[in-house]
Amino acid sequence: MLRKIGLKTHVPIVALILMLVGVTTWVLSPGKGRRLDSGAASQSARLQPTGYPQLVSIEPMQEADGEMCQLEPASASTTLVSELQTQIAEARSSAIDEANRPAIDADRKPVRTIHDSYSTYSAVGVDVNTNEVYLQDENLFGLMVFDRRTNTPPTAKFSEPKRRVRGSMTRLEFNCSLWIDPKSGDVYSVNNDMVDRMVVFPRGSEGNVAPMRELHTPHRTFGIAIDDEANELYMTVQHPPQVVVYRKQAAGEERPIRILAGEQTKMEDAHGIAIDTKNKVMFVANHGATAADKGSGGHFGPPSITVYPLKAEGNTPPLRVIEGPKTQFNWPALLYLDQERGELYVANDMANSILVFRASDSGDAAPIRVIQGAKTGLRNPTGVFLDAKNNELWVSNMGNHSATVFPRTADGDVAPLRTIRSAPLGKQAEMIGNPGAVGYDSKREEILVPN
User: How far apart are CA 149 and CA 154, in angstroms?
Assistant: First the structure.
């Protein structure tokens, strides 16, 4: 039964159609009609189902109250059609306007924020000429400079630095390693992940200052070492794993002198680097993960330290590899070579330890000394520096906002000589560096953040 909908009934529209086409009956189908003449119209009842609606006849039907649906004059139907066309045009215009409307950012405050407001230290270096220690702040993007003898009391919230280098003009962002020129005091800082540059500041820099020089580097550079004798600067690249070598004074868009890269190098997620100018070799710390250049696959291997000729380039295999369960490697990060005593120091991030090897070690070698334990104050150590002048070993801890200093030959679960803290005692770092996504575990009520 056709009922009244809105302002008019469906019957006037049908009547209008019939007035236009006379006695011809149409079978309606999407996009076209099949005409039946007057003789064939009587057989329309025998039409086979088509799977879509067919108009085969029109019969006046009574309303529920017994009244017949009244036919409207053609002029009224024409008015209705006009109204419907107007409404359709307006709806179409509104839909187009909605589709073309620019997105508007919602300006509202978050319910809560997970953020670490304290400095976290990714690397450490000492300027022995000024008796100052430099700490890389990877969380707040800056450099913190302290007197070398600073020792934060357990009751103090933190130690205030002598000066800071921080701000948009510094070009520091996710700064992960540094090197201090022992002669000039220039500070070289390597940025990782987000910005592809190494920046250099003169000794005594402070505040939101521009670097004296910057070099455009490959994406994901991490470690740094400098051969002063050859006037060459070495940097590791995480992916694709490689070592790039520049002139020490390189700046701008200058290209590397040589590049060590390829499957035969056995580098896998390269991090720290140290060079031995006496024995003409270099050491590279590898986390162990690697992926194909074009994203076609990858694998996880054991962490290792690979050793190469100092001037190696191209797809050169290592001279030897330090790798295996006895090494205790768990994300080996930055390295430092004590060339005088032939000892290699490793910041062993995920094991909260400092490992010391003989520089000549190979294979599944056990470290000759290990600094590890509750007394040490180590928490995710990523940077290590040997101050040979004062016989002190410095460690930067990403996990607890601190730098710890030990005797040069420290071994075992030993307390540090001094500690510099940038946060209250026992405050653990959030360790949110460069989150790419977020998830929620409803069973454990935990927020999952890949870094």
Answer: 16
Measured between alpha carbons, how far is 235 from 189 in angstroms, rounded to an integer? Answer: 11
Q: Which distant-in-sequence residues (6+ apart) come within 8 Å of 432 by Cβ?
A: 114, 115, 116, 449, 451
User: How many other CB atoms are found less than 10 A from the CB of residue 279?
Assistant: 13
Identify the residue whose tokens are 């290590």.
384
* Contact between 143 and 167 (Cβ < 8 Å): no
Q: Are 240 and 220 in contact (CB under 8 A)?
A: no
Residue type, 276: D
Q: How far is CA 438 from CA 49, 99, 139, 213, in A?
A: 53, 29, 19, 37
Q: Hey, is 281 helix, strand or coil?
A: strand
Instruction: Mention every residue, 6+ apart, whose C-beta is less than 8 A from residue 281.
Output: 275, 307, 308, 309, 310, 319
| pLDDT band at residue 225 using 50, 70 and 90 as cut-offs | very high
Tokens of 30: 């999407």
CB 323 within 8 A of CB 362: no
Q: Are 305 and 286 in contact (CB under 8 A)?
A: yes
Q: How far apart are CA 256 and CA 242, in angstroms?
A: 12
Average pLDDT rounded to a whole number, residues 46-61: 51
| Residue 128 CB partners (closer than 8 Å, separation 6+) | 182, 387, 389, 390
What average pLDDT score do residues 342-360 get?
Answer: 98
- CA dist., res. 405 & res. 376, Å (int): 9
* Tens-place pLDDT, residues 292-344: 666 667 778 899 999 999 999 999 999 999 999 999 999 999 999 999 999 99
- The whole-angstrom separation of Cα 81 and Cα 65 is 27
Reported confidence tier of residue 19, pLDDT bands at 50, 70, 90: very low
Task: Say which residue the tokens 């707040």 belong to.
Answer: 140
Q: Which of residues 61 and 137 earns the better pLDDT score?
A: 137
What residues contact residue 20 under an 8 Å CB cut-off, 6+ apart? none
Query: pLDDT at position 13, please?
Result: 42
Residues 2-16: pLDDT tens digits? 333 333 334 444 333
Residue 176: how many other CB atoms lie within 10 Å: 26
What is d(CA 290, CA 265) in angstroms, rounded to the nearest whole number? 12
pLDDT value for 38: 41
**SS3 for 415-437, per residue?**
CCCEEEECCCCCCCCCCCCCCCC
Closest to 236 measured CA to CA, from 143, 361, 91, 335: 335
Residue type, 153: P
Residue-averaged pLDDT of the chain: 84
The mean pLDDT of 209-231, rounded to a whole number, is 97
